[in-house]
Amino acid sequence: MGMFVTLDEVRQIAEESREDLWHIAERNGRDVKLSIHWSAGRYESVFDDYHINILGDGRIYISTDDFAEVLSHTWKRNSGCVGISMCCAYGATTQDLGEYAPTEKQVEVCCQVIAVVAKALWLTIDKAHVATHGEFADNEDGLYIHEPYGPKNGC
To answer: pTM of the full predicted structure?
Structure first.
């Protein structure tokens, strides 16, 4: 069902998904979360593991028109969590983001998407609600629902 959308359409989908997202999150004993990623792909490669993909030129692609749909973007944290990914970082390492480093346009649009979705879902933008996959992997949101497996733990 994937398609390109505007920021206003992202806002509308988030608002329409809000009630279901909160029910799912509360059933799991937590608040709604936004998980921010890089796809480890090229600028035009979109992945259905994320609700929102941001291409290298800043275009926004959604994999689903229901952000409450559970997609597999963040281990043990997919329920009640919206996955937002910049399509970039193919071949990246911790020392070098390579030829597919995030573009300025991607970073700008990613920030706009985070702001729009957080507002639509009544979320505070803080580490308890909005974090990168690596931060969630290391339980930096204060929830210890799995053993840490992120960059601060040698992974």
So the answer is: 0.93
